[in-house]
Specification:
Four copies of one chain form a homotetramer.
Chain A lengths: L9 E6 L6 H10 L6 E7 L5 H18 L4 E5 L2 H5 L4 E4 L5 H14 L10 H24 L4 E4 L4 H11 L3 E4 L3 H12 L7 E8 L2 E9 L2 E2 L1 H6 L16 H7 L2 E2 L4 H4 L1 H15 L2 H17 L18 H14 L4 E7 L12 E9 L2 E4 L7 H23 L2 H10 L6 H14 L5 H4 L1
Parallel strand pairs in A: 1-2, 1-4, 2-3, 4-5, 5-6
Antiparallel strand pairs in A: 7-8, 8-9, 8-10, 11-12, 12-13
Helix pairs in contact in A: 1-2, 1-13, 4-5, 4-12, 4-16, 5-6, 5-14, 6-14, 14-15, 15-16
Chain lengths: 438, 438, 438, 438
């Protein structure tokens, strides 16, 4: 379609460029080059990530070299240099690294609560660690590339996006691989191109329901609800949905909703899995170590297959598609995390929601949702309450608000458990929470 | 103030007139006679309650005789006769009697869930049993006394009131003794008349927060939050609030909120109390038996002191005050259960809420709430979601909706527990749930 | 894209098939045949229109014959036969014919008020005549083709669509040629395909503002506001916009907004034009007579050029495009008249608005509007108030409500003028307003 | 009731103390002394008002002396001295004096538009002159008496109050004599005390409808609508309402609504009245001159009867009642101008509306409105749109916004008239509009 912008090509900054995911996004840029002419790709990381940045950065350079495309790959520890004049900025950070994630998962489990890095008390800690860092990055963007789009993958993506939209002027969109993942699955299952599929997402990041599924113009929602075993994600332990419950739910639940609807079974599985394999963080750590071993191989010029087992399949595809649509004004429909406006009439206008959007080069325009099933409203509002309090706690460093946030989370069973978790987790995250420990 | 209505005096119908509470309301009518000239008091009950109706009815007659007032007391099993031409109708029913309550409390406890007759799965069963009966009574009122006010005390009062407001044309108001109870307590504690106290209630029936407490023009909310041990209700097991949590909550919580905020402790207490004393239903049953023994005494001409230990203190005072204000257009402020309108902007207009109202003789006019603390919105919406699904299930007899309702309740930990509870409880309540077993 | 529906081809019913516009839509079906395989085209009209139906129907048959396509053209006076089993139904009716329009324009002018067939008192009369007839048609559709889409062009399209959506179960969409007309103009002006243009419409039918205009990704709104003389419609008398006013308005106004913003000048022009040429209705009558003379020519096998001067350019293109997108699930963006939902937060959910929609084969999904300029909210709400009262008057035949509607219209200067207009116009329209004269 | 605050008595500041109304408020303080123990009454004016301040100030002193009460009357030109530590501050200002008012009335009339000092273009000029001065006063209050209540009578009271609430931290309430005036009239007409009357106001200042009128518990709205000649205000020219129109309106209209509903007749009356008596400003000027002649009489120790003909009857009674209820936490119902919150769901939360409030010593709590008739919503929103744009113009001095405001006013017939009026009126008000002429 229409092509606008810098005629010499685009500057992209990837914050957290030393991540094991980087080869995915590099592959994406190479594949989409015709639509999305990247001229400069800046991979930026912090001092502790220098080693990984070098390994993955060298692989990126080899991948580009093989492609023969005129993309310059820059590696840097200087964030401001990477951000200055960028057209698109993505973040794939993990404040506190996998070590912090380990405790996000472990401490709750020890107290009989779901331990998960985006949902539950773990996600709250991740938000408290991450939001101040992201807002700090936004200060740089406001100064150095105020017209850039910030595409945020950093979890918990819903809260991070809302924090950015409320506390900065940066143009930001949150995104997740779940929507594209569902469409890929439907495309395969029904043997039809993705363009022939329509899915309507209602809810929040990692707390959505898919309330319309149309494939080749035929309503397939009920069929999908009946074949419930099919849509478990790889990085979420499997477990059985109650068929009558699903039938009445009015939408295909996000796999993260298992933590809310099957809390007992999921907790049991977590505890057993931890005994067998350690926390999910430790599992991921081993996978990552293996990946970096592979990346070091000077003969490797492609994204290795093994990366796909890492969990975040389609992340880079989602990112590159979004950049393409923003850059080229494609006006296709993508499911994104944006400010609510009037879409869900029971949430504030500035609350982030996950919703279908028409993507124009002025940004995403959310589509109305056809219908919000009565039975999901309470849970959406309960989790959004927790999210808003968490954001406020992250910005202020106020323990009192953090306690209210923790108590408000539907997976936390009581004030006394909330207090125990909060005290223990804040203490454990002390190095990453300056606002709480000044 | 202004006096309107039937110049010959008022006709009152008390549905469930055989209740042990009846002497309270009779005492209220005698005390308020000057403002509220009752001419006919109809106590109506069902066949199974005939014996209790006779005992308590005879006591009522003796009480009136002693007062020397020209009030006629009628006892009847014919509901339509009692309703015809009534000015005010109150309900104090217990569909399924205390036997049903016992199971409302017992079954959840057996599955590790709070067992309580208004909150949690027990309250849901109570709603399923009660709503159809109340709507049936409303059909009679629509026909026989369309201008009557129906004052509904029958629990769960919030859901019952919403069901009536949505599915009948009867003018109905739900009320609870908690608001007047708090004001009595404040009046005593600060040694000032109730007229000098202002309390603002926000939320739902049995799920409210008092967000403003002013005594003699001085803000006492924070002080009350600090003296948290003071405000436990007699019929709710005591247990300690976390002081920091209360401080940040922004409102004095209803004592029923302990079930949500201290689920673990409350459950433990219930289980222990059951071991020691049986269910709360069984305790109440013993108290009631003793009361009826007292009532039988032909020399008794007054409400016996022991009734006050029964639990629902001030119920009749609340009822008589409300009738007085409606009848005399008093325009005082009372906390009532009415339709939301625009008060809470995240709930539907026809949702029942508990809110301060100006009481005029055209009915209550809700007052704006000064502020709704962010931290309570999610829980209010979650419980209202459960309530609306429960009402829909009660009206339709649809098990699928009942399952969604049960799952939506914040005290029910998972779909599998919800299903177990629902199946067991529906089966146990079979005689009272014709819509589910047709 | 995806093709669904009747494999043997589509049945289309055109109500008001004897209209001079019919050759346009026939041409559209021929041109789009590959995407939209019409098998049966039913042109239906009333007894008074029999002669015109025959003339235009024969032309339609010659056009189809020339195309060589297997489309059957049916002419009928039996509406039910035409509707039964139809896939798409369009309406292009004029209850009361051009004679009624003449008075819609003439009477207001005589009292110093804008005389216009869709805006002002004329539009109100048109709505009162048309809504009951359309609702009657809807009763047939509910019975005979409940899955059909009713595409409503009949003016006042906003009110008619809202009436259908509120008082019937028919799936209906209102549409207007203004949006496609603007895009055609922009496409020509900027020499770029329509797909490279994005326009955002905010408001109501014939009362919209275009608040975003992007051409090849470049914001052109301000430029368009500066070249204000360019966008007058052919069937609206020209007249000059105040440049400073436009600059601050925040959106390109619909040409019908001249009646609101330049009432004095427009009225003067109407009065002068009437002196010179008679009412617009009379002008149109002459054009139509000439058209039908042309249509009679048995050698004519194409839509004659002269039809384009008739005024409703692009109507059939809009209709055929919409059918194509509904049938083929094209998911393109079209500007349509649909129920508001939450889009404009100050209007009721069931109010019709004109808004960009994604067109899927389950119907249009409205897009959020980026921003509603403060300065247009009052006028939108004022006109919508008038519209809702008019719809209520049309459905009930209540003169009191009709008076409130007339007074509420911003172009009616006082209650006394409203009363005069209403009395005179109701009387004149007596044959078409049975609900008012029973 | 409860008495709080400064035990030594209250400090009151009257800004615009040299007004001819001052004797009214002094009389009010004397009459209410027992409930409202005023210790210091500060009358403050500007240099140009020094002479009038001295005359009226001396009268005030004589009135207090006669009463024998320990109230100190202070006259000053130092606003900050008057404000410092005040408990209540009232404003009764006229920026530009009656000379400015004359042009507010005269210029619109010259262009065929209603000339009125609060409604129409005149009111807009008054708002542009007044809002910056009031906000300047608010800066002083924020600094010198942050806990004071500012009771604003200064017209246009709705816009001024909204401006204060949006652009300062001062606790402010707008009030008008219309509500108390209606109650006085009803009290007299039905021979019953005001306490037995309930009236519900819906709308904006000088743009309200009274949708409930209950006297001694009996609905009298329809009766009042039938006796329409009764309720014309003295300072508004009389003229006849259309009976059928009123019957269907659903509320008793404010007398200012005649300017909207009978624009033609009212304009004619204004033009004729101006020919006969000059503008209303000139009439008022003569009355004021006469009043000050009276005030000078050293033997005068009371408010002279003639003041009552001045027009603002009950203003001081309204003010003193409001202070009494705020100070003594009376919790009676008063009709006030406050922020909308959720009361009217189609207006922003921070829009000022005129609404019944419970007056507590923490401020007014708005009551829900029972129902908003459909037919008044559009006009309310149209005028509020004009008001919000006017406030924005006043604060920014932006001519473009001022033009949008003028065009948005329902009494201004077209953009060209708006532009003419705006240019002429801004020029005439140049000395009072520094923001526009910097």
């Amino acid at each position: 379609m229409v092509t606008v912008g810098n005629s010499k090509g685009l500057k992209i900054a990837v914050i957290g460029g030393g991540s094991s995911y980087t080869p995915e996004i590099v592959e994406g840029f190479i594949r989409k080059y015709e639509q999305l002419p990247v001229r400069e790709l800046w991979l930026v990381d912090i001092e502790q990530g220098r080693h990984k940045l070098e390994i993955v950065g060298e692989l990126a350079k080899r991948m580009v070299a093989k492609s023969g495309l005129p993309i310059e790959v820059h590696l840097t520890l200087d964030r401001r240099e990477a951000i200055a004049g960028a057209d698109f900025i993505t973040t794939q950070m993990r404040v506190g690294l996998l070590e912090a994630r380990k405790w996000d998962e472990h401490i709750p489990n020890q107290h009989g609560v779901i331990g998960q890095e985006t949902t539950g008390p773990g996600g709250m800690m991740k938000a408290l660690r991450t939001i101040p860092v992201l807002l700090d990055i936004c200060r740089d963007i406001e100064e150095l590339s105020p017209n850039a789009w910030l595409l945020n993958f950093t979890n918990p993506a819903g809260m991070v996006t809302e924090a950015i939209n409320r506390y900065s002027k940066v143009k930001s969109i949150g995104l997740c691989n779940a929507p594209i993942g569902l469409q890929k699955r439907l495309s395969e299952q029904y043997q039809t191109p993705i363009e022939h599929i329509y899915t309507e997402f209602v809810g929040l990041n990692h707390l959505h329901w898919v309330t319309r599924i149309e494939v080749d113009g035929v309503d397939r929602l009920q069929e999908m609800l009946d074949n419930r075993e099919d849509y478990s994600a790889k990085n979420v332990p499997p477990s059985e949905w109650d068929p009558e419950f699903l039938k009445g739910l009015g939408g295909l639940p996000s796999y993260y909703l298992k933590y809310f609807y099957m809390t007992d079974i999921m907790l049991e599985e977590q505890v057993e899995s931890m005994k067998a394999n350690g926390t999910r963080a430790e599992v991921v750590k081993r996978v990552e170590d293996e990946l970096f071993e592979l990346y070091k191989d000077p003969n490797l010029q492609d994204k290795p297959k093994q990366l796909e087992q890492r969990g975040g399949a389609y992340y880079s595809e989602a990112a590159v598609n979004l950049m393409d649509s923003l850059y080229n004004d494609k006006r296709d429909i993508q499911t994104l995390n944006v400010s609510n406006g009037n879409i869900l009439d029971f949430l504030p206008a500035n609350a982030s929601i996950e919703v279908n959007c028409l993507v124009t080069n002025k940004g995403p325009i959310p589509l109305s949702v056809t219908e919000v099933p009565e039975q999901i409203k309470g849970l959406i509002h309960a989790v959004k309450t927790y999210e808003r309090l968490t954001i406020e706690a992250a910005v202020t460093g106020d323990r009192g608000i953090a306690l209210q946030a923790m108590v408000s989370h539907p997976l936390v069973p009581s004030v006394s458990v909330a207090r125990t978790l909060l005290d223990e987790m804040l203490e454990r995250n002390k190095p990453y929470l300056p606002a709480f420990f000044e």
